[in-house]
């Protein structure tokens, strides 16, 4: 299973230089899980930059993966992970969701650098 962090979705939708890193994972929706917090983060950004129609289109694409809601078990594990690794709230939820589903996290977020089961790529100056 795979999980693309919110930053990866934004790179993909912007067709940035890093979009090619995320595209194979996003487009193989049979192995893709999508935490609801990623939908929130991505749609909020797209809504503010491009409007409601674009945000709804983005949400539709994200729903092609297996959407995973934040439940009590993931929340408790996210609290532990966040405390242990000093991660922000959303990153804690993303990592806890990935671990609950045995998924590899694909990201350019430096908070994840060096963590187990993370496919990290360095952010470029031309990234979103």
Secondary-structure element string: EHHEHHEHHEE
CATH fold-level assignment of the domain at 2-69 and 102-120: Rossmann fold
How is the main sheet built? 5 strands, parallel
Number-wise, the strands total 5
Spell out the CATH superfamily of the domain at 2-69 and 102-120.
5'-nuclease
CA(first)-CA(last) distance: 25 Å
Write down the CATH class of the domain at 2-69 and 102-120.
Answer: Alpha Beta
Strand-helix topology:
Elements: E1 2-4, H1 6-14, H2 19-27, E2 32-35, H3 36-50, H4 52-62, E3 66-68, H5 72-85, H6 89-100, E4 104-107, E5 118-120
Parallel strand pairs: 1-2, 1-4, 2-3, 4-5
Helix pairs in contact: 1-2, 1-3, 3-4, 5-6
Task: Characterize the structure shown.
With 128 residues, the chain is α/β, with parallel strands linked by helices. It has a domain of 87 residues: 5'-nuclease (Rossmann fold, 3-Layer(aba) Sandwich). Helix content is 55%, strand content 13%. The chain contains 6 helices and 5 strands. It has a 5-stranded parallel β-sheet, sandwiched between helices. The chain is globular. This is Putative nucleic acid-binding protein. Its cofactor is Mg(2+). Belongs to the PINc/VapC protein family. One of its GO terms (molecular function) is metal ion binding.
């Amino acid at each position: 299973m795979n999980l693309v962090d919110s930053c990866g979705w934004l790179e993909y939708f912007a067709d940035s230089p890093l979009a090619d890193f995320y595209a194979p994972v996003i487009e193989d929706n049979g192995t893709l899980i999508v935490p609801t917090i990623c939908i929130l983060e991505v749609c909020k950004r797209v809504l503010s930059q491009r409007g409601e129609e674009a945000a709804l289109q983005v949400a539709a694409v994200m729903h092609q993966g297996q959407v995973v809601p934040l439940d009590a078990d993931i929340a408790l594990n996210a609290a532990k992970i966040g405390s242990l690794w000093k991660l922000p709230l959303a990153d804690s939820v993303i990592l806890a969701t990935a671990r609950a589903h045995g998924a590899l996290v694909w990201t350019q977020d430096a908070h994840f650098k060096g963590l187990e089961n993370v496919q990290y790529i360095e952010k470029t100056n031309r990234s979103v």
